Structure formats: structure tokens, C-alpha cells
Amino acid sequence: MTEREKDIIETQAPKEDYRQEDANKEMSPVPKNESPDYKPAGKLEGKVAIVTGADSGIGAAVAIAFAKEGADVVVTDYENKEDAENLRKRIEDIRGKVLWFTGDVGDESFAQEVIEKTVAEYGSVDILVNNAAEQHTRKSITEITAAQLDRTFRTNIFSMFYFVKAALPHMNENGKIINTTSVTAYQGSPGLLDYSSTKGAIVAFTRSLSQNQEIIDKKVRVNAVAPGPIWTPLIPATTSNNDKEEFGASVPMKRAGEAYELAPAYVYLASEDSSYVSGQVLHVNGGTVING
After folding, report:
1. Active-site residue (options: 195, 260, 266, 276)
2. Handedness of CA 127, 58, 65, 221 (dihedral sign)
3. Dist CA 6 CA 251 (whole Å)
4. How far apart are CA 270 and CA 264, in angstroms?
5. pTM for this structure?
6. Could you count the other beta carbons within 10 Å of the beta carbon of residue 129?
7. Model confidence over 143-182: pLDDT tens digits?
8. Which of 14, 101, 110, 256 is exposed most, by the fewest CB atoms within 10 A?
């Protein structure tokens, strides 16, 4: 990040923190990152998996499922200390170890550090889940400052470029890259203009990257997951919606999803079960039909 970009963020930043550090405020009902009914089958034994933005919500659920499937898990978070510590303990219970990094995924040097230290510890990378994201509700485009626009794109899409660039040279053959996009990439969201725009960019990034010759030559598969309304700490921390029933009422299933309901989709894309799948988006959204 240039000094000018830093100055813009400092002078134009909205009042709330860009990383939603209050995300572990109490929610009712409490979000669920883990299903008691999940039955692991060793699908990721011997694999090294990096999950960005995994302190809570979808990232935490994916990290837990990967650990249960036998992967060595590497996690990034920003500063959500309470949730992060809970996840750290849970993965250590499952696997005995987790490699943890705290920093800004929108800073390319942080992405490089995560990959370098992961390779130093484990020798290579097999799975990269680009999941870190942030959102800020605004009623009008005129309320979106240059700083917010820069920050949302930096976290949500720039970070994916940075992590793939750093990881690809160290990825084993048959590696997997999984990006988290959103139903808003297809439906839009009037109050989340910049967020929805980044999620649309992620779809294009996923499709384009999957067709890149270097990716094809290394037999790396690139896919994405597009969640619908998922009850995570991000929701009340960044919107006025504190009611789970209201939050999920618009989808055919008439309810919000839990983070753990997404995790099997990531396990599928990270494992050899999806050996003939690349450039695709899996829609886990409560029954909303998306023709895209």
C-alpha cells in the first residue's frame, strides 16, 4: 500500500472499523461453526490447507471441517481475538496443531509472509481457500467514500490475487483454489454496492484463473462457493439486522443457513471427489435459483 493510499484511508475512513472487530458480540441464537452430525472420511489426509478470514463464521467452519478430514490447517485472521482463540483451541483439539497468522490480507507482504512460513513449516501448499471479506451497509452510493471502496476491494478481491500469486509456485500438482463469492454477485444488493461488486469480480476471477495455462499445466483446479444468507458474526456487526428469522426469510427455505452447512461444499471442492470440476461456483443459498 502506498503512502498516499494510507493517507486516504486515515482521512476518509468511516467511523466503524473496517475489520468489524466487534464481530464477536453476543448473538441470539449463537452462530454454529460445527455440526455434531458431520462424519469425516479422511478426504484431506496429508494435505496442507490455508484458509483466510477464519476467525469466525464460514472460514472457521471450513477450517474445522478440513482439520477433521486430516488436513494440516493454516489460518489467517485480523484481530478478532476471542473467536480466534476459540477456533485455535478447537483445531488443536482435533489435529494437535494449527499454524496461525494475524494480519491484513489486503497487504501483499502479509500474503507473502503467510505462504513463506507455511512452506517453511510444511514444504508446500495443497489447498488455498480465499475467504476473507468485509462489508459495509450504505443507503446511497454517495455515502461510499474512496477509503471504503479501496478497503473493501483490497480485502475482498485484491487479497485473492496476492495469495494466489504467492502460493502458486509452491502448490503441489492437483492443488485446489477455492474462493468465497456470494449470492449478491448474481442478485445484487442495493445496500452493499461495493461488496456486491467485489463478489462479482470474484466470480470472474475464478472462471478466468481456472482457464489460465499455468494453472492447467499444474493441474490446479479453481472453483468458488456462493453462500446465501448465512448467520455469522459479520451480519449484526455490519448491518442493522439482529434477527435470524428475518435475515433468512427471503429464501425458499425461509431460514438463514449456518456456517457449518457450507463446510461440506468446501471439503468437496478441496478433495478428489471433485476431480472433474473447475471454473465452477457452488450455490449454497437456501434454495434460491441462480442461473449463472
Report:
1. 195
2. negative
3. 40
4. 10
5. 0.89
6. 29
7. 999 999 999 999 999 999 999 999 999 999 999 999 999 9
8. 14
